[in-house]
User: Fold this.
Amino acid sequence: MTPLLAALPPFGTLPGELARAAGVAAAFGLLFATAELWARRFHPPVEWTRKYVHVAGGLVSMSLPWLFRWHWTVLALGAGLAVILLIARRFGLLASIHAVERESRGELYFPVGVYLLFLLSHGQPVFYMVSLFTLVVADAVAALLGRSYGRHPFTVGTDRKSIEGSVVFLLAAFLGVHLPLLLMTGIDRGTSVIIAVQLALLVASFEAISTGGNDNLVLPLATYYLLVRLTPSNAAYIAYQLAAQLFILLLVLVLARRTRFLTFSGALAAHLVLYGAFSLGGVAWIVPPALALAAFISLDAIFSRALGMPRGGYQVAAIFYVSIVSVMLLFADNSFATLVPGRHGLGTGHPFHPLFVGSLAAPVAILAFETMESLPRVRRRSALNRALAAASLGFAFVAPLGLWALGGSVSGEGLACAALIDAGALALYLGARRLLRWPPGTVWDLRAVGLNVLVATLLVLPLHFTWLGVAPWSLE
Assistant:
């Protein structure tokens, strides 16, 4: 314990929490003051002053597990910081942080990410420190070096990034994971290296597709989740997972380049969905999203040929809205028994798998309907006829084989569940489009897809659980 900490009231007491909170608040006040002084006196690029506050504030935040016992103290500090930043943004203050050309809410996501990480990692300060390092140091170094030396740019929404910056992030994240695990835990050298490689590749992919500053929230939480999952495993298993991820990444990148359906960032997002299905569910769970991707590529080719437009070029937003419901169902199936203990029947087997398959068939049906509207011969048919054909196509392309892949058989309940989600989401989408009349070809189309698939899934959920015979559960 340093002499300064020794002079403070005891750790974990109310006076101790207040004294340390005052010190942390003063440290952040000093950071803001020096950043403003630097900006006004020397006029550096705003990205430099932002990264200065980002890194220095992150280093201060790394000490929180050793300063505070109560998460309420961290919550109060984070809320106070967020309020100050919101007021400063509203009145044009703190130009050293807010006067950035690109749209970003990163400074507001930061205190939220730190608090959630502190709350989740209670009792695991090393994991907290490693998770925050990927945000504080790796992200800052990648942003600055990528901006200066990036020669191979790619876009994520309205943000521009570079492959060089992503490589720098990967290398920095590798060191930031490997060295603390090696020096501060009992994990052996070989396992530490392979964990660091796997985690760095995954987190670098998340960073590459983050936009609007949401990496300040996503990166620390994703890093912590991966540390919890990977550290109990042996080196051979992690190497197997790493090899599978690299294979999926290479395959998706080659597919994206040959078909032009996905941009580079879109391919990274698609590979994360496919690898997530493989890692959390197993080989069988990768079949439905792979079938859906093949269907999307085929329908896009038909659509582009009919309208004489360039192929695809879909970015992260398209992958996000199309897959968000299936990803949530994947996580639910993987961790329900752990996260929701009690007397229920959802902890055995794979109760969410038919919902997962249906949630991937539904976007195919919606895109199939949109494609039919672009074909003159098909467009002459009634809307009901086209809707039935689109729902049948989405179901047939994904559901039978997707359900069969899990256990080598297909149940009537599983087929009915997938069919109801498929047809229900399409019907909701068409009804919403007729009532709301949002502009075609905008991000609202994607949002409508995700929202209507979610609503259809929630409507089918009670019926599916009834078919399973799942008894009501208790959280006691």
Summary: The chain has a mean pLDDT of 85. The chain is about 75% helix and 0% strand. The CA atoms of residues 139 and 290 lie 31 Å apart. The longest helix spans residues 14-42.
